[in-house]
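Same chain as my last thread, 574 residues:
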Amino acid sequence: MKLPAPVFQSSILPQLPIHSDFLSVIRKKECLFVYKAKAVSTNKDVASPNSPKVEPETQSKTLQLQQEVDMVGTPLECPFDLDVLKIQDEDFYSKESMESSHHSELKTCIYKPFSSFEARGILSNFIFDPSLQSALPVFCLADAEDGERTSVLGIEKGRNNELIRYKITVAGPITSTDPTIQLDHLKSEMAFLTNVEEFSTRAVATYEAYRGVNVNSDTDTSEAFVRLECSWKNPSKVLELPHIASQAKVIIRPLPGETCSGAYEIWRQLNTLQHLIKGLESLEIVWFVKASQKTLREEIDKLIAAFCKDDTYQLKEKVEVEELYDEQLIYNRTPMDFIDHLWELLSQNCSSFNDLCQSLQYTLQRAKTDHPMVFFDNPTKFGKMLRQNDAPPQLSGMEPVSLLIEMGIEKLKRDYLYIFSGNNLVAERVISMFLPQDGTSYIDQLNCLTSIQSAVEVVALCHRVLQLPHLALRDVVTPLLEHFRDPQNFGREFSFQLGVCLLKGFFQRQESGSSVEKWRVEFTSSNDCHPVKLACQLTATHLLDASSTGDGERVGERRYNVERYLSKSDTLLG
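reply #2:
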């Protein structure tokens, strides 16, 4: 059906004057803004200095409508009824809905919109005439009088020269049951646009399995996530789960310091160790707020008494950190010796340098008679002092801090060794290659421990979020350790391929698509030397509250922004 294209006017704007939620998805801010006419105002208003400066409008020639195209694009929310438009810094729309919670007077009419049918006719020219595509992006003002209450239609050229079509509606994002994004409807659209009946179908889905933020970090990258990217052929419906025989790319970015992580306690001790090493170099140490209500001598007496019993491993009051490890990490924490527990006690309760000196000196005096259990292969200098029968040496200078640092390094080395080899994730000889070597500087040893901590965070996320089986974790550990051994990879994501069949525990919880971030279906023509590809991508918005009745269990139906991509090349999305 051919119709005469309506006469329209246009202005080149440095930025499309609509709300910021939509601006973030536009790659190019300068755009061609199309409207029906500029209304004559009865009042000679002086232009606001805050209003965006627009170039003089130009009358465009009438363009012949080549073919009507349904411009279904991205239904982003328009909070106002749109009759006419006045461009200002804060307001894009002319009049607010009477049902809206906002109230304002009717604004002066400046720009008049087209009907949505006329707007589709104008934009169809840019789709079918390549000579006009140099003017993209173009956005056309509509009157929101159609069934979907469309207020803006637009076209933009993507990174791979595909055409991206946008739609802003009063209703906002759509639900997964919307008829315009059902598979049969999309197949019909592909056949209409390409005039072919044979084409292949492929689905691509991105699942956000986990996202966490470190509130103590001010960096832009302070965000941990677990993301799955899956691809499979011949999907049967929109938002279906990946086929069991397909592959998934698992992308994980750890964020050491998350309190909900099973590795948080180890990270806290590593952070304390880093603080002490830097303080030893600068001779400035900010000491700790005492965690225990008892005096340090009372705590040391209690600890020595426990480690002098015949059955050392059956401590009456088991240290809480061991229970924390058992519950949240993937291995059973093995017993620690006296030096390990002394490190934990002093690193949390020494409120001054004098406290540290007196505590170490008192421990040496008590150990001369009580002999607490220390692992025979504990190489720390303080461990050797405890085992010898000579008179306790006098500690001088910054030696107490060095002794405490040695205890912390040795304790964390054993922790990491037990995490990986104790749970049979990797052989002891393999993990030993990544542990700090004796005799190297404190900074070098700290860097080794920091890289291993990132690997521990990834293992903890795989175990807690993805519920990966033991064999799958074993295959990942060695390349994981190699990845974070490179200092340039600190804070970056780690990725690996995995069969969807191994992610059964995760996908069993996804029947409602609760964590799908993006879901895309691609149609590619198969009988043409220059294949045409059409894609429909659904991007999930935040869950909406179903009601305010106080029922915390009820949540609204998930809604999706939708984008269409049309490309005449093999590549589609960047």
